């Protein structure tokens, strides 16, 4: 999977480092064989990259291309921005990178240059440079201090010419360094989710579909109106790697093409346009309504199964959740699970035993809900499995963080959440390792769970 996808770019970056005479070396460790080493450095997913220098360990958070790796390393081992003294140096830098940010200033020791350097220090996977060389300024047709972003896609160049400071440079770069429509894949995922722009408009469409070009064109045209405010992202529905992403939004291959919006600010929320038609004007209105705050989140729900209450563990969906869980005449324990979650599967036999234990107790309900296809407005799930207790005669909602054993869960229920849920050191370590992040559903290209 993801380790194999990284192997080529990682080897390419290593070769380029060696050819340049760099003292930095790239190495790899089989963490399944070197288990003690993996434990020592807290490895919980593959692939994980760490940078070691002068007894300091830094987590790598850059992209997954050779250029991304090399640019990140350059920021850690040298100056955040390179000074360009000749036109040839400029052309070499431009040719070697998909994106480069250049501060073209009359003075390289002024406030604008200082602001550029500060931003360069924090954006590891983008090469920055600065210059006051007349040949370069003439080549770029610079009339006043300008931050120039050059790229090998879309319009090719963007200029920032006024109010040059740290905030404006950062916003300018974040708004323009990715394509107008960026395709979600292993290389782009970190840039999409790790950037400052937390509102993403997603187009789910198969690249092999007959109308792909026309749909993509409509989507791209809409994206131009929201540069710097949202990211417009293409999800190829024909790619099996993206099945989990479709599932996360409650979509199947038969539902595409489709547009959805997700915000990752504060609390994650998803939104669906009223119309399924993919036209520029419809998308623009949909996104603007979100920015204006006039949209309500789109909550997924399945239909209520006919046999939802036939087994000891009751089956909840979005449509019957509040009626059952918020029934104050009963104590209700709910497991929020994902079908693909390995740790949910490990809990299943214990949870079934728990349901069997309380099936004849009228004031206790043991229930479960597939949180990948059912969402509840006032319940936010961050990892799977999540267990929440809704005590009898109370409006409280109590999270369970204790051991996942029949005895501990029984104590938690019997005490209305007062016992059995306390986190011990050992239990904290267990549950942290066991829980699977919900974010991995749409950012799964970054890590494979251990």
Strand content: 15-25%
CATH topology of the largest domain: Glutaredoxin
Q: Which CATH-level-2 architecture of the largest domain?
A: 3-Layer(aba) Sandwich
How many discrete domains? 4
Task: Count every beta strand, where a strand is a DSSP E run of 2 or more residues.
Answer: 21
What's the CATH class of the largest domain, please? Alpha Beta
Helicity, as a percent range: 25-40%
Strand order of the largest sheet: 4-6-5-7-8
Q: Spans with pLDDT under 50 lasting ≥5 residues?
A: 422-434, 438-450
Question: What is the CATH homologous superfamily assignment of the largest domain?
Answer: Glutaredoxin
Silhouette: globular
Distance between the termini: 13 Å
**CA radius of gyration:** 26 Å
- Please work out how many helical segments DSSP would assign: 15
Structural class, by secondary structure, is alpha/beta
Assembly status? single chain
What does this 3D model show about the protein?
- Helices cover 33% and strands 20% of the residues.
- It has 4 domains: 1-77, Glutaredoxin, CATH 3.40.30.10; 79-177, Glutaredoxin, CATH 3.40.30.10; 181-291, 3-Layer(aba) Sandwich (Glutaredoxin), CATH 3.40.30; 313-441, Glutaredoxin (3-Layer(aba) Sandwich), CATH 3.40.30.
- The strands form 6 sheets. The protein has a 5-stranded mixed beta sheet with strand order 4-6-5-7-8, covered by helices on one side. It has a 5-stranded mixed beta sheet with strand order 9-11-10-12-13, with helices on one face.
- α13 links the parallel β15 (331-337) and β16.
- The protein has 450 residues and is α/β, with parallel strands linked by helices.
